Amino acid sequence: MRVVKKPEERRNEILDAVDELFSQKGFDGTTTTDILDKVGIARGTLYYYFKSKEDLMDALIERYSNQLLGGANRIAADKDIPIIERIVRVVLSLNLSGGSSEEIMDHIHKPQNALMHQKIQKMIINEVTPIMAEIIQEGVEQGVFHTPYPYECMEMLITYTNTIFDDNLVEMTNEERIRRMEAFIFNTERILGAESGSLMEVIQIFGNEE
Length: 210
Prior knowledge:
Helix content: over 70%
Shape: elongated
Largest sheet: none
Strand content: under 5%
Radius of gyration: 20 Å
CATH architecture of the largest domain: Orthogonal Bundle
């Protein structure tokens, strides 16, 4: 008996399978037949939802992005977490991990996927900036930060991190990365009007994550 599933359920089932296959075999190593066998569907069903493997990758990126932004919003809204700690947690929550995330990042950074890379950068600037700006505004109200431009400050800072700390755009040694991170934190404290050294915890946490 053929099992009929709701479109959204079927779509997620396909994406779950593709996420697993990409993490195991890579984007280039995964064939359409692999996907069909994994999900147990006909080729026509797959193409009804996704026209190509590139479409599947786009959908996975969108799903990962939604998950990351959802997590970031939950952390940002938790008033029980101190301001600076909340900022650190939001930043760390935006790192892709698990599933086919490594394959996704490798795929995004390929020259032929420049447009996809641009989409991700645009999403980060447009969606993450207001999340962070709201925390900064709360910090201003608490006297942790002193700036009349919380949104604009975060827009500048996120744009910087979105380019300079992108391995595909700027090649750096580990020492150069550490120095840039120190300079970034140093200047961030001044842009936000924060107490000197108050954001240095960010460097320590990033260092422990590597």
